[in-house]
Structures are given as structure tokens and as C-alpha cells.
Design goal:
Layout lengths: L1 E5 L3 H12 L15 E3 L5 E5 L5 H6 L5 E5 H7 L4 E6 L5 E8 L4 H7 L3 E5 L2 H11 L3 E5 L6 H5 L4 E6 L3 H5 L2 E10 L1 E6 H6 L1 H18 L5
The chain binds adenosine-5'-triphosphate and 1-O-pyrophosphono-5-O-phosphono-alpha-D-ribofuranose (PRP).
The site of 1-O-pyrophosphono-5-O-phosphono-alpha-D-ribofuranose has 8 residues, from β9 and α7.
Pathway: Amino-acid biosynthesis; L-histidine biosynthesis; L-histidine from 5-phospho-alpha-D-ribose 1-diphosphate: step 1/9
Pfam family, one: HisG
Keywords: Amino-acid biosynthesis, ATP-binding, Cytoplasm, Glycosyltransferase, Histidine biosynthesis, Nucleotide-binding, Transferase
Length: 218
């Protein structure tokens, strides 16, 4: 049995075409079913639904053999025990610093004042500001980061941006782009040895779909 960990929503939706190319079709709709283990058309493959941030943990400890996780999530997790063979180039966005439109971020940085930054991505944020020599106080949040500058909880946020419409709707502006984000295939290192052939087949098919759909790697 091969167990694949996915999160509901964009990662699930964007992984489906890759699975289809590998001859794997999930036979239940996660938006309609309450099941956390979804069967597929193949007796030897199943999908487990977990929170996006839990995908690396499931794969690390062998709760799943494979998974799909965003680079944001993998950097925060640390990647221990995970083989990361492939950038799937799905769920693309960027990680950015944003502030209220009336906050002068450039001046705050120039003056060397401490900037209060709210984020779910404390590891990446800490590294980013350390590299720039900006003094920050980090405030860990688990969601709705956009609210932090609006309520006075923080001066800035580090969050994911795609179309920019969430920032715009909350009168925030992007002042720095930290990195491009996409999702990767992650594999349990022991499973790769014990179930080498079926896992290798999945990696190979995914790789050929990814390189044919976008020949210009990021
Ligand atoms: N607006 C977006 N556009 C494109 N990709 C995104 C966007 N937001 C997040 N992502 C990517 O998709 C992944 C999954 O996001 P999703 O919204 O499903 O989970 P989440 O709500 O961030 O996680 P959790 O449920 O664990 O809090 C993220 O880790 C990120 O890599
Ligand atoms: O620049 P945008 O296109 O507005 O996307 C950015 C938003 O997407 C993510 O949240 P979430 O996963 O909740 O967004 P969703 O509404 O796309 O699901 C992220 O945390 C931002 O809030």
C-alpha cells in the first residue's frame, strides 16, 4: 500500500492531474465526504487528508509514504527525514512583507527602529530580517495575518501573496518579496527504500508531467 498525504483545497485540486497521469484517480470528493482516508481506483494507493502544515510531519514519521507540501510549510518544518525529489510547480505564490499603506516601512528600517512583525512563518521571517540587518520583534500567528497591522498588533506581516487581492481588500501594501513559493513532492526516506519501485514510478510520471507542462524551471 502506498499512502499519499494531501491537504484539502488547492493542493488536492492541483495534485489530481498529476495523479491521473500516473493512473491514480481519487474516487471520493473530499469536499463532500467526511472521510479522512480516501480510496482510489487502485487497491494499492490511498490518500490521507491532513492539514497543510501537518503534511511534512506525516511523511517524516511514516504516517504517509509521500506527500505534497508548500515550500513555506517545508521551510518552517525544517525538512528532517524528508526526501524532496521534485518541485511540482503547483500552488504558486510568493512570501512577502506587507504593511499598512500609511506606514513608512523604509523610514522605520532606515532609522533602525524595531519593527513588530506578525507571521505564521517565523523561521523564514527571522532569517529574512537577520540577513537584512533589520531589528524585529516577531509575533507568531496561525492565520488572518492581515488583521495584525489593522488592529495595531504589528507594524508589518510576512504572508503569502498571490493575486494581491487579500492585501488590497485590507488596505495593505507589499513592501518586500522574500521568495517565490510552490509545492514539492516529499517522500519518507525509509519508504523510498522499502517501496522503491512504485514510489519511483510515481516520481517519474510526476516529473515528466511537470517538465512538459512548464519547460522553464523556476
Ligand atoms: N493564495 C495562494 N495562492 C497560491 N498558493 C497558495 C496561496 N495560499 C497558500 N498557497 C500555497 O498552498 C499551500 C496550502 O495552502 P492552504 O490554504 O490549503 O493551507 P493553509 O490554510 O495555509 O494551511 P493550514 O490549513 O495548515 O493552516 C500553502 O502552504 C502555500 O504553499
Ligand atoms: O494574494 P491573494 O490571491 O489574495 O492570496 C493571498 C491569500 O491566500 C492565502 O490565504 P488562503 O489560503 O486563506 O487564501 P484563499 O482565500 O486563496 O484560500 C494567504 O494567507 C493570503 O491570505
Amino acid at each position: 500500500m502506498i499512502t499519499l498525504a494531501l491537504s484539502k483545497g488547492r493542493i488536492f485540486e492541483e495534485t489530481l492531474p498529476l495523479l491521473k497521469a500516473a493512473g491514480i484517480e481519487v474516487t471520493e470528493d473530499p469536499e463532500k465526504s467526511r472521510k479522512l482516508i480516501l480510496p482510489t481506483n487502485r487497491d494499492d494507493v490511498r490518500v490521507v487528508l491532513v492539514r497543510a502544515t501537518d503534511v511534512p510531519t506525516y511523511v517524516q514519521y511514516g504516517g504517509a509514504d509521500l506527500g505534497v507540501a508548500g515550500k513555506d510549510v517545508l521551510l518552517e518544518h525544517g525538512g528532517q527525514g524528508l526526501y524532496q525529489p521534485l518541485d511540482l510547480r503547483i500552488a504558486k505564490c510568493r512570501m512577502s512583507v506587507a504593511v499598512r499603506a500609511d506606514f513608512d516601512y523604509g523610514a522605520a528600517v532606515k532609522q533602525g527602529s524595531r519593527v513588530r512583525v506578525a507571521t505564521k512563518y517565523t523561521t523564514v521571517a527571522r532569517q529574512h530580517f537577520a540577513d537584512k540587518g533589520v531589528h524585529v520583534d516577531l509575533i507568531k500567528l496561525y492565520g488572518s495575518m492581515e488583521l495584525a497591522p489593522l488592529t495595531g498588533l504589528a507594524d508589518a506581516i510576512v504572508d503569502l501573496v498571490s493575486t494581491g487581492s487579500t492585501l488590497k481588500a485590507n488596505h495593505l501594501v507589499e513592501v518586500e518579496q522574500i521568495m517565490e513559493i510552490s509545492s514539492r513532492l516529499v517522500v519518507n526516506q525509509a519508504a523510498l527504500k522499502l517501496k522503491r519501485e512504485p514510489i519511483r514510478r510515481i516520481i517519474d510520471v510526476f516529473e515528466s508531467v511537470v517538465s512538459s507542462s512548464n519547460p522553464n524551471p523556476r
